[in-house]
């Protein structure tokens, strides 16, 4: 398994380099202009000067190599030197065109709120999806299952920009229970501030969790149904095991194998942020960073973010495969 | 000018007296939401409105514009003019004098060196300065003494108030940005995110494209201001949710740029937590009259001076068309608080606004009929007026846009009431405004009798805008249909006024000329102005001192904002 | 019903196992699949009762129903003196050690995520209070008994061959010292070379532990080898039940005759002379069984009565039961069909 993991990681390097080049070329081909969002009163000559100062005058391969150097060499070296105190660690970093500040700092700044809200919604979503999936499958076609199916369908098909605005109107405007705008500067220092954090997280987390839960509970249900009819379940019953043991030990453990990998594969989405939900609740995490960078034609930020997403997707694909190997004794990597 | 400015300043001071009594920082926190988030605090690195306005809380220009578009001295002692000797008589230099005792928020004094540095910073060709237009034609900026700077232009500038005036051109601290000239500008992240300024607030935490935390500037020139100790400037989301947070939930105090349908905004406002405020600039929705004949039979000479319009060349017809329109109703249906009826094509700033044409505010169907009767246009069997075999039948074009099509329908009805037949036509905006000389449907070609669109000009100076209606500006096949004079208006008198303005430096004289031009266009009914479209923001009912301003940053007077105690 | 001494270990009377069919938007109950429809049989202690029939005839369902792996529709089942036909789940669970099952597919019937020791030891955890080492010792004993190497205890099922897996299944079934084991086609999924080994193992274990088997199979020759008595099922019903030799020598029911005619003879001379009875048509759906005799749609001898009246399952000779209108009082000596195709191979 270790050899397998190392081999996969080594294979990932050329893959990622190819991905970074493809992303770069795609972004470059896409019609986007970093000065497009400026007011019309700024004349074309000034726009051209701004473009030149962003380095858009250089040929594409120079710009790509520059990005590679800044991202793969300068950034890690800076971090290393600052940690070890060897040098200044002030090599030129990847700079955003919109904010003129290092992209990596922007990402680091936005990661907490994304992890809090999107990550928590994933955890909550999984936590409610599993029991719902299990019970729905065990009592297939019962009222519980029918309601679960309906709720999943709703959660899956009703977009978050609708549910988001709906809960804001109900809980912020009418009832006034929760803030409609997320405060990213809020720090949890004591019980009081923790409660505030909970209050401001409830709505975005609930909206996203519904969506996540809808997806995962369907997987869980299908997987449970697959296993419930297996012969080994009959064997377990024939052994005279308690029904709880049969369902929770035999059926659930086997059903979880595919679900766990689906859950692992979904983790990169957390880091990708939830563009729409972040926008609706003004969480301003990584998803919002990506969308405004795209809108603003901020190529270095889009390039760096999408590349990091690519890394995460590759890593979590590997994690999913390794987990499968650990969970399912039938699968062995060598 | 000077006196007027002082009076206005005094009036503003009276208006804000309750706040003036307060102590600095006594009103706690004020929360502002912009649905587009600022990405930097350095206005020279981003030309976006959101960045300019956020930065205006921190960095300030020598002079700025008040809510009526008048220039008021800000960091300067006074606004230099030809009269007070601040502007040379050949209009090539302007000399500014800084107020005494000004301090940066870090406690160091503001000097003329900072002003000179600001110019150098923006003028550096490698820096990609977004506001370099403001410093056009500047050949030199010299510090005369610690508080005096002279700006020299390469050409005579009748309006020399580009550099260091308005939210786009504030003064930055030389010491902080000394190493950030030219290509190094983007690398000074700390300075770009937290510029040291002279404004009422200073940045404590800047999260690009998300939220800015500010606190009162301890070295602000007025020891009693600002009333608020901290500012939270949140960005992101969408217009409706920003409006909701101010008008319905009361979480925020001020929301910017509420481009929402009148009924949506009205419903939000009815929650009673906040107020919608609007201010009006120069954007006017107008109907242009074609003074030339657009008859397709004329081929290449269609809509050119060679053939006057068969009936629109009669001033009585043009006037009757204007009189039949109910501008107040158009505003109510199309724009709500974001619009107001206008009788001028140059509706602002205040000093340029004519009051000579306000008669158009009242619809007068009977008057219009009488006018047409008197001019010999009598209704035929089908109710359409005609004279000498010419029927009053109009082709009315505009771009495709829900509000514009509502306007077309209403106006068609009113015109039919006075016996004028109207055929409506709408053209996709990208074609209509696209300016493609090969397309017959551009607003420049004007192959119709009347057309409707909106236009405005940047800044407060109308010189270039009013020059649009010179003879030579008429689009013709010879000019590839380029030009701004859509009505093909041609008047020697008017052209003389334009030429005179180009040589006049004195503001009052310039205003007189601009008004005269406006009145001439209005009274000849060359252009039928309909609606003056404004900018709309919303503020909480507990936030006092807000004065909307379209000529400068909306937050221009944030130092005077306060919390109303009664609520 | 049986007179081969003593009380039978297992008594089944009028067992019915119907699965409801739901259809439509509101999932209304529109019918039943009558997988097992009124069967009765006895299994004596230490004997092997073979249960044969075509696939789909309900024999596996019958086996599972007898162990109450289903909630049965009707009838009674008595195992070792206890009526288990409608005891609740918890009580049934405590009765499980007495009766066990060996499944057809040794791969699917073993939990892929449990080791051999886990699979064999799990019932011990549930039903006996043994220490960890005692339990392991018992697992080893069982592995010895079925001929599995003790060193395999920590391996997973997928690492074994089919025969070995079935040995695991058998060891698992034996773990709680059952009296009665339902062997549901235990050799169907195995290579022919392995089949004999497993059958022999089952026989050895029967002798060693005094087990009683209900041996379900479609393999008539294997049943002949292992069973003491044989029951033949067709479409949810037992059509004939008799001591082994009796049934194989003198089948009475036309269906049994047809089944047996398909078994190849080892002797080529006799094989050449043997008459094949080829049944035409398909087995009717168990949700829509024919009126009268279930077999009437395919029976070479069917007459009007067969399509109207269901034949009674009755004893026609000592220990020989059958359900056919033409058998019994007017005993038919020759199993000569009067209709149907005769084909020489």
N-to-C SSE string of chain C, H for helix and E for strand = EEEHEEHEHHHEHEHEEHHHEEEE
- Rounded radius of gyration of chain C (Å): 21 Å
The main sheet of chain C orders its strands as 6-7-8-3-9-10-13-12
Query: How many helical stretches of chain C?
Result: 10
CATH topology heading of chain A: MetI-like fold
The CATH superfamily of chain C is identified as: P-loop containing nucleotide triphosphate hydrolases
Describe this structure in words.
Chain B: Belongs to the bacterial solute-binding protein 5 family. Chain B: Its main location: periplasm. Chain B: Residues 1-22 form the signal peptide. Chain B: InterPro entries: Peptide/Ni-bd, SBP_5, SBP_5_dom. The complex is a heterotrimer of chains A (334), B (567) and C (345). By secondary structure, chain A is mostly helical. Chain A has a single domain, classed as MetI-like (MetI-like fold, Orthogonal Bundle), CATH 1.10.3720.10. Helices cover 75% and strands 0% of the residues of chain A. Chain A has twelve helices and no strands. Chain A has helices spanning 2-29, 44-53, 60-84, 103-138, 143-157, 160-174, 191-228, 231-238, 243-272, 275-281, 286-295, 299-327. In chain A, helix 4 (103-138) packs across helix 7, helix 8 (231-238) packs across helix 9 and helix 9 runs antiparallel to helix 12. The mean pLDDT of chain A is 86. In chain B, helix 15 (492-501) runs antiparallel to helix 16 (507-523). In chain B, the strands form five sheets. In chain B, strands 1, 7, 8, 9, 10, 11, 12, 16, 17, 18 and 19 form an eleven-stranded mixed β-sheet that branches. The longest helix of chain B is centred in the C-terminal third of the chain and has 17 residues, at 507-523. Helices cover 25% and strands 20% of the residues of chain B. Chain B contains 16 helices and 21 strands. Chain B is of the alpha+beta class. Chain C is an alpha/beta fold. Chain C has a single domain, classed as P-loop containing nucleotide triphosphate hydrolases (Rossmann fold). Chain C has ten helices and 14 strands. Chain C has helices at residues 59-66, 89-95, 116-127, 132-145, 162-174, 192-209, 220-226, 244-249, 254-261, 268-273; strands at residues 10-23, 28-43, 48-52, 74-79, 82-83, 99-102, 180-184, 212-217, 229-234, 237-243, 276-278, 314-317, 320-322, 341-343. In chain C, helix 3 (116-127) packs across helix 4, helix 3 packs parallel to helix 5 (162-174) and helix 4 crosses helix 5. Chains in contact: A-B, A-C. At the A-B interface, helix 2, helix 4, helix 6 and helix 11 of A face helix 6, strand 9 and helix 7 of B.
